What does this fold into?
Amino acid sequence: MADLSTTFPLIPLRDVVVFPQMVTPLFVSRPKSIAALEQSLLRDDRLVVLVAQKDPECEEPTQDEIYQIGTLAEVMQMLKLPDGTVKVLVEGSSRVSLDKVFDESAHFTANVSEQEETVRDDQGTKTLIRVSVEKFEQYVKSTKKINPESLLAVSGIGQPGRLADIIATYLGLDVAERQKCLEIVDSTERLEYVGLLLSRELELADLEQQIHDRVRFNLEKTQREYYLREKMRIIQDELNSDGEQTGEIAEYKQKIAKAKMSGIPLEKAEKELSRLEKMMPQSAEAGVIRTYLDTLVSLPWAKRSRDVLDIDEAEEILAEDHYGLEKVKERILEYLAVRKLSKQPQGTILCLVGPPGVGKTSLVKSIAKAMNRKFARISLGGVNDEAEIRGHRRTYIGAMPGRIIQAVKQSGTKNPVILLDEIEKMTRSYMGDPTAAMLEVLDPDQNDTFTDHYLDAPFSLREVVFVATANALDYVPRPLYDRLEVIRISGYTEEEKLSIAEQHIIPKLVDKHGLNKKNLKMPAEAVRKVIQEYTREAGVRQLERNLATICRKVAAQVVKVPSSIIKLSPNLVTKYLGPAKIIRENDIRGPQIGIVTGLAWTETGGETLSVEVNTMPGKGKLQLTGQLGEVMKESAQAAFSYIRMHAKELGIDPDFGEKLDIHVHIPEGAIPKDGPSAGVALAVALISAVTKRPVRANLAMTGEITLRGRILAIGGLKEKVLAAVRAGVKTVLLPKSNEKDLAEIPEYVKKQLQLLPVAHLDEVFSVAFKEKTKPTTGSKNGAVNRQAARRSASSTVKR
It folds into this structure.
């Protein structure tokens, strides 16, 4: 027997009463209960107090909400399941009463006293035991709910208390009756109480058998439908029913009428309801039909949001929720204006493309807000099963509608704004191609009769406004791409980030962390330091995380000293966030030989790309490292060929290709890199390494080169220029063919650095080496405008 003077961990149980000497499996999921279970395992005796709670729906019961009599049990086995639930096998030891319950932060504990059982060994008790065993045998034979092997568990028991506990465990009693059985200390009285309950269960079993016999007596046909209807009639007679239709069927008919279905959906609903009416309520197929009908009646077949297309109000909403992005806002307002003027739903599917953290999702929410429509979001990242879009057929266990129908159901209206988030991250697999399924969803000529496999009935998506978002469109199949109207969102400049922080992020974080303007002041120079030295991103997510870190540290200081007033300074930023994480290499290094800063574009925005070249005595071998793609390797070969062709004009020994080995490396070797836009940087780095002439600092360049030295157009110019600004570059060389794209770059960005369009490598050399070189053949040829989409690199690489 355990030492009951100690404190034991306590677990409140829902709908379960554990009896002494009985082995019972339990499933534990509440954190406090799991903690109490783990605490019991640390004890030598592995004991825990198990007490039923009065209200099974209560998640955090108090001492008044649990019974005062429980069971002290030993933990025999414990298994943690993948969903976090713990399966445990316990064996009851003895009845105990709760003297005092302690609600600790981690789990409940309790001081208990053992309930001594009173045992009578008289003839009356022995007779009661024999009668109870006979009744239990009769009950087991009359019902099929209990395994006949259970008779072996009671046949040889001569203790009235133990027999009562075993019979109570097998009977289908509610918690209150089992608890009363647990609380009766006198073993004979407890067996008498269980005998009464057993007699009641026998009467119910006999009544059920009588009903079954009467149904069989009245049967004239053997068909299943007649059998079920006749049994239902007899049951209604026993309950003195007036013969009216059952409540469930009537309720479904009301819901179908209220849903205002028509056509094929209405026919499907009525057909399935007719099938349900003829089925046994407990059958598995009846459960499937109920779920199907619940889905049908919950869909908004005729419910719509009333459109409010006030362009002035929409403009105010966009301006209030988002800073900058003027061209994007202008296109959205145009889209709303057309919807207001046109009475027919527009087939345009907008697709916002840009790096993470620039506000694509919040823009779609603003569109829904401006149109006075419900908003629903579908995350498509990692979706590789067509059934995720079209739904599962009802022949499968656990079938459900696809994400499109679920989003409409979630919104509660027939015309919501649905965000298709990360549409480029859907992938094809052996389970089908979800991008092909999206073709019907996004085609206005087809989605009026969109048929989900689960519904097996058409549902119109014509009034739904679909807006997609993506980081890049390289993986989007051409048929799906043709259905999208792409709006590109570039990254933010430093000034834009500062304004966004001051107008949106800081007020939100200050309020979220319980601060106010008196507790914390963030001057512009401090925020600018966070932007420059602790973030390097196109969006503002990392900036928000760093500012949130500062707010948490200030909150901790305010709690300690309530009168604290913190004015954030650059020194305090370093104190709160640690040493600077971003060091601008262009600020700390001067002109160097064989090192050039290039510019790249990735799906997360623009990036700077360092190109390093070393030469050494050898036989003319050109080695390329840094996980370069085929296109970038070809650009390096083209640059090398150009230098060998014009070695004399460039002041280089014509035989250098036979005397020197050249190693070209682009750092961050773990990241794949590809694309032609690094051609200019590769050429300048090669010439610098071979001629030993340093390249000027604070200079970056981008452009594709040809064997004749011409510089061709590239894509992503705005993102690359913004990356140059973030890196502290002062001068950027860009293809002259991209001069037209300078109109997209804000004026205040142009004032921060010098943008020099160049058409030939001669012009590049004169700037990079601060001297002019002799003209070479082809210098008068203009650059050829090429689309950046010709690059074959994937969206995950630097280009």
